[in-house]
Every structure is written in C-alpha cells, then in structure tokens.
C-alpha cells in the first residue's frame, strides 16, 4: 500500500490536486457568498515534530519507527478537528515511537517495555477514529503507539461452523480478499472499511453494513484474544454461553484501555448471491421514519433500511429536496429475495410511501449480482447515487479542508416514542448554533441503522467559518448538539465510540457504579495505567 497521508483521508495520492482545490474554493464562494481563497495543502516535507524523547531497546529497534511522517500519521484520526490540526501542522504531542509488531510475542514485548517504564501505550488499528480514540495523552515521559497492521492474516477458516480466526490488524479489504477464495465474507462494511481493522472494529463496537438485526461487530464475535500487561485474555470459542458476564463483551468496546486485541474468532457467512433493493419516497422525514419503523418491527430484517431526509436525499441521492428517501435492501446466499422486498415495499406504501414498480430491483446469481462481478443491483437511480456518495464522502472532505468550512457529522440512537422530540431538539441546537457562530449553515439527517425499538440518526452539518478559528467554532457547535442529545435521552455515540472527544458526555451516560467496576478492571489488567490513558475512565 502506498504511503498514508498524514492529514487527509486515504493515501498521499488521494490528497487534492491544485485544480480540485481551486474548483472547491469557487463552489464555496458561490454557495456562501464570501471570497474563499484556494490554499494548497501541506506536504510531508513541511513536518517538524519534536524529537523523540525515548528510544526503543535494541531487542525492539527493528520494529520501531521514529521518523516524523510515521509519528504524524499516528497522532490524529480523521475527524474534522483532527484534519484541521494536521493540515495546520499542529503536532504538539506526537508519539515518540511507533511500534510495528509482526507477532503476538512482539506485542507482548512492546507492552512490557511500556509498562515497566511507565510509557503510554496506544493501540492503533487503521487510524480512522473520529473521536480522538488513539490521540496521545498529556503527562507521560514517553508515548508508544502500537500499530497492529502487520498482524493481518486470516489464520483459520472453519467452514462447518462458519467462523474464522483472524488477526486484529487485518484491514477490511484485505480481510475480505482472504475470505473470498473460501466462499465466505464477514460482511461488515463501516464507512471506514478501507482504512479500519478488525481489532479497531471490536475495540470500538463498530457499526457496519447491516442496518437491522446484525448491526454491530458484537454480533459477529465468537471469541477474543487480547494481550494485557498482566497476561493474555482469551475467551472460549462458543456459539453462546450463560456462564456469567461475558469476557468477550468486556473486551468489545474497551477502546484499548484493558489490553491490545491480537486476534478473534469471527462468525462468517456465505457470500450473498440474491439481492433486491428499492427506494421508497415519503413527503417528509417523519413520514419516512414511520415507514422505517413499520418495516423493522415486521422483523423482515432487511440488510439495508436507511432513511434520508429531504436535504440528505438531495445532496447524496440526486433528488429534488422535496421528499425523504427510504432505501430498503435484502440479500441472501441461498434464497431469492423477491417476496421479502415486495412485502417491505408494501409496508412502506401503507405508511405513505411511493415507489414505481419498475424501481424495485431484484437479482439472482445469473444476473451477476455479486459486488465483485460488477453487478448493479442497488447501484442505479437514487439508491445507487446515495451508495456512491456514501463511499466517496471521506475523500470529498479532503478537498475543502483548510478553507474555513466547519463541517462534521454526529450520530446517536433513541427509542421511537422519543425520536420526534429529540430530532427537534438536536436540529434546533445545531441550526441555532450554526446561525450564531457561522452566520448560517445546513443540517441534514439520515438513519444509519434501525431497531424494533428505535432508530440511529446520523446528522451532517456545515457552515462557513473563519480560517484560523475553525476549531473554536466547531467546539461550540459540537457542545450544543451533544448537550441536546443527552437532554433528549439519546446516547452520545451509537457507533463512533467514546474516545477523548465524547468522554465528558459518556461520564454522564454511564452509571457510576459501572465506572467504578471498569476502573477496578483496568487496575487489575493494567496496574501501571499505561494503556490508552484517559479513555472511558480515569485511574
């Protein structure tokens, strides 16, 4: 893989060209009625990080890096505030050393080195965090980021039980490429799929491809193996167990504070051969949410059941901005999906939705429906336009970075009966703060996942800020929206994790006795407090 960009989403070759920057500046100037000057992004040669304060022992030197580029790549994730700081070459506290272990024994050796010297040890998956999930903490004499990307193999495939033992550093594309010859797939596709890893998905309770039923990585984990400063934590591989609190559940979502996940047995499935999709339009977002609720409560379990409000449908699906769009999709390795899609469409129509019969798309194996063969089921019309926009969104944000635009996303989950009030509160908080801070801006929303008892809304917002003041403006908007989510009874995060960014609101959300129990677990597993300090709890 080519070298990663130290500030943009993707590789250095994905950084915007001069022409793209100039065109983006012109678009923003026209949209907001202000003069936006095109400024070319920084180059890796411009990096000047502080000198490393520590050196690895000779036994680890071969797997450790201390160059500025590697340390810069491992300082920030890819949220708005991360990109702005990296774009502006602001790296006041980079890791001193980046370790690239190639075996579990080397992971153990790195962790022993850090623990015995009191150096912060930061587990690193694919670097796609949007919540400062691996940003180095203050107050440590040495910081070592542990990059698991060399542990990237599918080690075993059990085709009888349909599970696979996979190393934690496997990125999404590489993981799927190794399962494909066996006829299997993990089928977990977060938007960060290209630059995120299995260990990262597990540590952050990632939300993936399925909008209903199997929505989180939790649903695919059969057992987890994790290296801690006090020993190896490995659960027994089972389809289910009632033997006390689950050790897997404690590792899932632990965000690197208890140990470094090195591998896991994952439930896999045969690759889908039958597909069906439809885009049902509604006169309003609330009308569409009623359609989504009825579909999911019928327990047909569509793989895709995503609702776009009129604004989102216009920008991401090419519609005219007057109607909401409910995207419904089914897939199966064994069974035709004709009946499922028609039943779901009928339910959506009964809720006030509209769709032409010819816009229901159904495919079978002979129709080249598998995504690796270039099939087009679900890839045409408004549904296809949304899919392409969804995949390309992180790259588009590269182009406007540093131009003064303040833009970001946030997500939550809420029960159905509280959903209308929460939407009003969060939209109101976002719009009022955008108007006050940026002089205006836009807010849109979609459902990324739906459950029988509630949706997971995902808000996108933007406004034209001032160059040099973007971070302060962003912080004010984020604060207002997060406060509104908590006041409405939602969760501070549905699938983006807690990290350092959401910690203040997570402290409000979790019960204090649970926090004490988590602190006790961390003291037991990480007695010197070196693993990702400051996330989830303070010790």
General description of the model:
The structure is a single chain. The chain is α+β, with helices and mostly antiparallel strands and 539 residues long. Helices cover 33% and strands 19% of the residues. The protein is built from 15 helices and 18 strands. It has helices spanning 18-32, 68-73, 80-87, 104-117, 172-179, 198-204, 247-251, 285-297, 310-317, 338-350, 381-400, 419-438, 470-488, 503-509, 512-525; strands at residues 64-65, 97-99, 120-124, 143-147, 154-158, 163-167, 184-185, 221-228, 231-234, 260-267, 269-270, 274-282, 304-308, 324-332, 361-363, 405-411, 442-451, 454-464. Strands 5-6-10-8-9 form a 5-stranded antiparallel β-sheet. Helix 8 packs across helix 10 and helix 12 packs antiparallel against helix 13 (470-488). The relative contact order is 0.12.
Distance between the termini: 38 Å
Uncertain runs are: 369-377
- Overall mean pLDDT stands at 95
Strand content: 15-25%
Features:
alpha+beta; 5-stranded antiparallel beta sheet; globular; 539 residues; 15 helices
Characterize this entry briefly.
With 539 residues, the protein is of the alpha+beta class. The chain is 33% helix and 19% strand. The protein contains 15 helices and 18 strands.
List the helices and strands and how they pair.
Elements lengths: L17 H15 L31 E2 L2 H6 L6 H8 L9 E3 L4 H14 L2 E5 L18 E5 L6 E5 L4 E5 L4 H8 L4 E2 L12 H7 L16 E8 L2 E4 L12 H5 L8 E8 L1 E2 L3 E9 L2 H13 L6 E5 L1 H8 L6 E9 L5 H13 L10 E3 L17 H20 L4 E7 L7 H20 L3 E10 L2 E11 L5 H19 L14 H7 L2 H14 L14
Parallel strand pairs: 2-4, 3-4
Antiparallel strand pairs: 1-2, 5-6, 6-10, 7-11, 8-9, 8-10, 12-14, 12-15, 13-14, 16-18, 17-18
Helix pairs in contact: 8-10, 12-13
């Amino acid at each position: 893989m080519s070298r990663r960009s130290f500030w943009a989403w993707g590789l250095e070759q994905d950084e915007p060209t001069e022409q793209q920057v100039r065109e983006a500046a012109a678009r923003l100037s026209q949209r907001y009625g202000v003069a936006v000057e095109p400024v070319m992004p920084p180059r890796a040669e411009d990096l000047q990080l502080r000198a490393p304060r520590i050196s690895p022992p000779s036994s680890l030197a071969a797997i450790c890096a201390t160059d500025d580029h590697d340390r810069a790549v491992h300082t920030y994730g890819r949220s708005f505030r991360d990109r702005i700081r990296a774009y502006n070459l602001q790296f006041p506290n980079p890791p001193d050393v980046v370790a690239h272990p190639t075996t579990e024994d080397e992971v153990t050796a790195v962790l022993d080195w850090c623990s015995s010297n009191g150096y912060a040890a930061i587990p690193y998956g694919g670097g796609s965090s949007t919540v400062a999930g691996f940003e180095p903490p203050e107050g440590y004499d040495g910081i070592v980021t542990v990059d698991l990307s060399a542990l990237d193999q599918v080690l075993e495939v059990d085709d009888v039980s349909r599970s696979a033992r996979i190393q934690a550093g496997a990125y999404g594309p590489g993981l799927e490429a190794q399962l494909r010859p066996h006829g299997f797939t993990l089928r977990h596709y977060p938007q960060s799929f290209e630059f995120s890893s299995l260990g990262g998905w597990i540590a952050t309770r990632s939300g993936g491809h399925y909008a209903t039923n199997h929505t989180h990585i939790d649903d695919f984990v059969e057992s987890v193996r994790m290296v801690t400063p006090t020993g190896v934590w490995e659960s027994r591989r089972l389809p289910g167990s009632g033997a006390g609190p689950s050790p897997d559940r404690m590792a899932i979502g632990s965000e690197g504070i208890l140990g470094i996940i090195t591998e896991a047995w994952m439930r896999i499935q045969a690759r889908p051969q039958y597909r069906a999709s439809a885009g049902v339009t509604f006169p309003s977002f609330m009308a569409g949410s009623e359609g989504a609720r009825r579909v999911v409560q019928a327990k047909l379990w569509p793989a895709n059941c995503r609702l776009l409000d009129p604004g989102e449908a216009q920008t991401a699906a090419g519609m005219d901005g007057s109607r909401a769009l409910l995207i419904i999709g089914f897939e199966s390795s064994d069974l035709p999906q004709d009946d499922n899609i028609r039943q779901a469409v009928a339910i959506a129509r009964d809720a006030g939705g509209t769709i032409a019969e010819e816009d229901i798309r159904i495919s079978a194996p002979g129709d080249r429906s598998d995504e690796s063969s270039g099939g087009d089921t679900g890839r045409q019309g408004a549904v296809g336009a949304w899919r392409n926009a969804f995949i390309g969104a992180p790259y588009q944000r590269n182009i406007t970075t540093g131009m003064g635009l303040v833009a970001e996303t946030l997500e939550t989950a809420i029960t159905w009966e509280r959903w209308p009030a929460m939407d009003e509160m969060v939209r109101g908080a976002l719009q009022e703060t955008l108007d006050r801070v940026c002089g205006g801006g836009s807010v849109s929303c979609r459902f990324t996942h739906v459950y029988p008892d509630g949706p997971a809304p995902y808000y996108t917002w933007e406004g034209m800020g001032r160059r040099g003041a973007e971070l302060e403006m962003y912080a004010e908007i984020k604060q207002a929206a997060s406060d509104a989510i908590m006041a409405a009874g939602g969760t501070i995060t549905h699938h983006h994790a807690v990290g350092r960014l959401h910690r203040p609101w997570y402290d409000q959300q979790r019960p204090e006795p649970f926090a004490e129990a988590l602190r006790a677990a961390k003291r037991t597993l990480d007695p010197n407090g070196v693993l990702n300090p400051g996330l989830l709890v303070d010790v």
